[in-house]
Amino acid sequence: MDFIPTTVAGLPLHPLVVHFAVVLLPLAAFSTIVAIYIPRYRKGFAFASVFGLFVGTGAAIVAKQTGEKLAAQIGFPQNHANYGSYLQIAAIVLFLLGLVWYRSFKSKPTIKASGIGHLTALVATAVLVLTFLTGHTGAEAVWKNRLASTDQNTSAQKTSGTKKYSLKDVAKHSSSASCWSAIDGNVYDLTNWINRHPGGAAVIKAICGKDGSESFNGQHNGQRRPADELKNYLLGALS
């Protein structure tokens, strides 16, 4: 969907639109379940629930597309992307089932939940779970490492930032258990970043024990956020 913009007023569109998906979609899914199993709420909740599913599904689709565009610029949080794909599919299925259920309910009102109602409720439950997982992995990709490492790395930078290391020192740490890399004249311990890297663990493993300047600069091309993230793992200067 190339017609969807990447930014709005200078801000990435993805984190803006994703709030519609993670708030409206689960709200509509929950109210759909309520309407299916509590007959007295069905009349008041049914239409609003299906309409909410329509808007929430649209938001999920836009969030997925804008997320892919944002990932192309700053890196790819794989778990978040996977859950986003599953959520998009589940939301579409839920909206279609909800529409069928609503038309069935309107044409043949009944107190008991129908077969299509049970199926709709099941998919709605899946949407609730996937919404949580998508939102959680997205927040984790943005904040977990930043919050967890701020204090310890600030201290580490004060004590070890003036130390110097050679490429021979770096070469001794060439595995995922202890991964050092030299980038632009500095040495970094990337061990804890391997499984958190938005672009995948293999990218970091490829530069363990060696000078990763070319790989880092080729991937990020002077982007500010990756450079700021890298500072958290500074050991010292390359001698």
What do you see in this structure?
With 239 residues, this protein is of the alpha/beta class. It is 68% helix and 10% strand. It has eight helices and eight strands; from the N terminus they run ββααααβαβββαβααβ. Strands 3, 4, 5, 6, 7 and 8 form a six-stranded mixed β-sheet that branches.
Please give the structural blueprint.
Blueprint (H helix, E strand, L loop, with lengths): L6 E2 L2 E2 H25 L1 H36 L3 H30 L7 H46 L3 E2 L1 H5 L2 E2 L2 E6 L2 E4 L11 H5 L4 E2 L1 H8 L3 H8 L2 E5 L1
Parallel strand pairs: 3-8, 5-7
Antiparallel strand pairs: 1-2, 4-5, 5-6, 6-8
Helix pairs in contact: 1-2, 1-4, 2-3, 3-4
Runs in which pLDDT lies below 50 for 5 or more consecutive residues are 155-161
> Helix share of residues?
55-70%
Largest sheet: 6 strands, mixed
Structural class given helices, strands, pairing?
alpha/beta
Task: Throw out a few tags for this protein.
239 residues; alpha/beta; 6-stranded mixed beta sheet; two-stranded antiparallel sheet
Task: Summarize, please.
The protein is an alpha/beta fold.
